[in-house]
Amino acid sequence: MIKLKLNKLIVFSLFFLLTIFSHAQNSSFYKKSDTLNTKRKNAIILTESVMAGGALIALNQLWYQDYPRSSFHFKNDNKDWKQMDKVGHFMTSYYLGKVAMETLDWAGVSKKNQLIYGATAGFAFLTAVEVLDGFSEEWGASPGDVLANATGTGLLIGQELLWQEQRITVKYSFNQTKFAKQRPNTLGENYLQQALKDYNGQTYWLSANIWSFNKKSSFPKWLNVALGYGAEGMLYGNSNAVNPIQQDAYRQFYLSLDLDLTKIKTNSEFLKSVFSVVNFIKIPAPTLEINTKGALTFHYMYF
Which of 154, 173, 212, 224 is the most buried (most CB within 10 A)? Predict the structure, then answer.
């Protein structure tokens, strides 16, 4: 399902940057330009255009060609997967925009243009994917996906306009579950596939940096508090009587501590780059869970 493939885009984008940084750790590559660096800006525009265009062409030729085409139409899938796929769209849109903003900032592009051309990149790309879905008889464009994409972009832009920084970030964590073994073709056959496709093991977090809201305090700059959302018991997108295996799906809500790796002091520009890239991963920590079955659970260490 194309919705399950989109989570790969954020992982690819972030680790693409990490690969670049790892080959330039002893150069001036890291240093942000104080003024507009036209060469950097043009390189960014060319690279992102090629990557986005190539991804859309690949999806169109390698994925959609296996399914009948149709006239453009919408499909309401808002009840599927306890909305976990929608939260995945929210995170993907947020981070694609964030990566685009940060690369433009590195090139010395003005904040206004970063917001216009960078922060909206995630929404623009994912909207193009929805258009492809809309012309596929199998799928159809999802209004819920579009709303989730817009919300992720809105969180990014809203914080820049309000605080000129990201005090609240979106994070991800994953645990393997027993459900993938029951439907490996849909939920994944190995750890990497399951991390991308098995919604039962995924948790999405809003991680807020406490010190950022009171910078005169002596509170640790790197300590965050995080609110998480997950769901479990899902073998199919929805609970349908015709499903071969019945499911008992439920929602999970979490309260936990977290780390903002970008606020850990280090003199290494390479480590700063690594911390910035992997900061989308939620750090394991003591966690309180409550679910819609009425259970309240304390995890000494939850990832």
Answer: 224
